[in-house]
Amino acid sequence: MFNHDDERRQPAWRRYRRLLRADHSADLDDELRDHFESIVDELTARGYSAPDAQAEARRRLGNLTHIRSRVNQMDRSDYVRRARAAAFDAFAADVRFAIRQLRRSPAFTIVAAVSIALGVAANTAIFSVVNAILLRPIPGARGAGIVRMYRNHHSPLDWRDLAWFRDHAQSLQYLVGERSGSAAFRATPGADAERIRTSFVTQRYFAALDPRFAIGRPFDVGDRDASSASQVVLSNAFWQRRFAGDSAIVGRVVVIADHPMKVVGVTR
Amino acid sequence: MASRDIDLIQGTLNVLILKTLSLGPMNGYAIAKWVGERTGDEIDLEEGALYPALHRMEHRGWITAEWGVSENNRRAKYYRITPLGRRALRERTQSWERLVDAVGKVLAVQTRHA
Q1: Which candidate, A53, A88, A31, places its Cα nearest to that of B51?
Q2: Residues facing residue A102 across a β-bridge
C-alpha cells in the first residue's frame, strides 16, 4: 500500500528476512500500515469514498519516511547499546566464574600462576637479548647503511667464513665481524679482577662502523707489529664508571683475560 | 490555521501514553484516538511523535509490545504497560500535578491595571 515503492525496490529475499530474525524495519512498516488502514477504515465508516479516505489518511500521517527513519534510528542505537551491555555482562560473569573455580582448587591455581610467571619471565629475558643484539640499530655514524648477516638459525659464522664472504661479496664495502663474550679485567697486573663484557673484532671494524671517539683513536691491524701489545678500545660507560672519565687512560696498559692490552681510545 | 492543538510539554507525551495504556493494551492508532476523544480533540497525538515515544518507552521497559491481529485481520502491534511503566506513570502524574498547581498559583494572581 503506502510503501509499495519501497517493497518493489527491495530484492525478493528481503521479505523473508523476518523468518530468520526480528526485522525491526519490517515490523515498523507493519505497525504504520495498521495505523494507516485504521484511519482509512474510520473515515470510510464515516462515509468517505475509499480514495478520499486514503488521501486524508496520507495527509494526517504526514511524512512517513521521517517517522520511519526516526524510529529506526532509535531502535538501532538501542540495539547496539543492549548488545554492548550484554557482552560486558557475559564477560563479567565469566570472570566471576573463573575466580570461583580458581578459589576452589588453590593448588592448581598456584601451579598455573607460577607457570605463567616463569613463561613471562623467560620470554622477557629472550626478548631483552633479541632486542639488544638483533633489533636495535647498530650504533655508529653509518647507521642505515649497515646490514646484519645471518646464516640459517643464526648460528655463528667463524673467521674463515667471514674472510670468504669479505673476499667475495660484491655489494658490501666492508665486511666485519664481532665475537662478544666476557673476560676478567684488571686495571694493573695483580689487581682485583672484574668481569666485563668484551668483543673481539675483525680488521677494519672501526673503519666500517665509524663510531665517534671521546678520546684517543680506533685501532686496526696495520697499527701494530707482532712485538707490541694488543690494543683495546673502552666503552664510554665503562670508562666513566671505572676510571671516572680520566683522559690519562689513553696509552695505559690494562690486563684483560690475563693479556696486557694498551688502551688506545674511548668511544663517545 | 488557529492552534487547535495544545503544544505538548516535553515529557507530557509519555505520561499521556502511559495513562492511556493503563486502561488496557492498545495499538498506536487506538492510543491517539482515545486521547483525542477524551480531550475533545484538543490534543492530537501526532504519529511523528507518537511512534518514536512508543519505541523509546518500550526500550526503557515501561511498556511491552506484542503482535496480534486487528479486527480487520491486519498484523497489529499492541502495547501493554509494565509494572515499571506504572511506577513511572505514578511519579510523572504527581510531578505534573505539582507543576499545574504551581503554575496555577502564579497565573491566579489578579493583575491590577493602573
Answers
A1: A31
A2: none
Residue A256 CB neighbours (<10 A): 16
Q: What percent of chain B has pLDDT over 70?
A: 89
Chain B residue with Cα closest to A69: B52
Q: What is the pLDDT of residue B20?
A: 95
| Percent of chain A clearing pLDDT 70 (strictly above) | 84
In chain B, % helix, strand, coil (3-state, to 5) comes to: 55, 15, 35
Task: Tell me the three cell numbers of residue A158.
Answer: 667463524
ipTM of this complex: 0.79
Report phi then psi at B41, rounded to 5.
65, 20
Instruction: Check: CB of residue B75 under 8 Å from CB of residue A23.
Output: no
| Global model pTM greater than 0.80 | no
Output the pLDDT for position A20. Answer: 52
Nearest to A218 by CA among A234, A229, A200: A234
CA distance A95 to B86: 36
Q: Specify which residues A215 forms β-bridges with.
A: A266
The CB-side HSE value for A165 (13 A sphere, CA atoms) comes to 18
Taking CB atoms and an 8 Å limit, are B27 and A31 in contact across chains? yes
Q: For A118, how many CA atoms within 13 A lie in the half-sphere containing its CB?
A: 6
Pick B72's closest partner by Cβ from A31, A37, A60: A37
Put simply, whether B38 touches A (Cβ < 8 Å) is: no
Q: Range with the lowest mean pLDDT among A89-98, A179-188, A220-229, B16-25?
A: A220-229
Rounded distance between C-alpha atoms, residue B26 and residue B49, angstroms: 17
For residue A17, what are the contacts with CB-CB under 8 A and spacing of at least 6? Answer: A23, A26
- Cα B49 to Cα A72: distance, rounded to the nearest angstrom: 13
> In this structure, are strands A259-267 and A230-234 parallel, antiparallel, or unpaired?
parallel
- CA dihedral defined by A233, A238, A244, A245, rounded to 10 degrees? 40
Contact between chains at B47 and A67 (C-beta distance less than 8 A): yes
Strand partners, A213: A267
Q: CA B42, A34, B85 angle in degrees (round to 5)? A: 60
Burial A176-186 (b: 16+ CB within 10 A, else e): bbeeeeebebb
**All cell numbers assigned to A254:** 690494562
